[in-house]
Amino acid sequence: MHQIIYTSTARPGLLQEDVFRIVEQSARNNPSAEITGFLLFRKDKFLQLVEGPLMALETLLARLGLDDRHSNIEVLSRMPIPQRSFPRWRMRRVGGDRDVLDELEQALRGEGSGLPIPQIVRDFVRETIDA
Questions:
Q1: Residues contacting residue 48 through CB under 8 Å, at least 6 positions apart
Q2: How far is C-alpha 80 from the geometric centre of its chain's CA atoms?
Q3: Does 131 have pLDDT greater than 60?
Q4: Nearest partner of 51 among 71, 28, 21, 31, judged by Cα
Q5: pLDDT tens digits along 14-29
Q6: What is the pTM of this model?
Q7: What's the average model confidence in pLDDT over 55-77?
Q8: Where residue 83 sits, what CATH number does that domain have?
């Protein structure tokens, strides 16, 4: 099991409804690849945390590189993990407001994993609040 966290820049003019479609499509496609995770969209930036088999995640990254809804993909973290943080989240959009960290912490407690929110995610939230 692996976890990848990346950021990217939304194409100009990307609407919230486009982001909802991305999440819906991911939620349909991810179960067959055994991928779980969440997508955060703030101030024209995406941050996505995905977990699953390494080859499935590498295939996903290659596919994302061809998606014209965003650019400048930067992988911030790629590591093996002992367990999923969000095992029931095929793909979920998490809030774009200041309470997103609370939302994630509550979700982690609800999943029973006891895992902390990765620092990379905390930093992204803080940076995009002040941007």
A1: 5, 6, 7, 8, 37, 38, 39, 40
A2: 16
A3: no
A4: 31
A5: 888 888 888 888 888 8
A6: 0.87
A7: 93
A8: 3.30.70.100
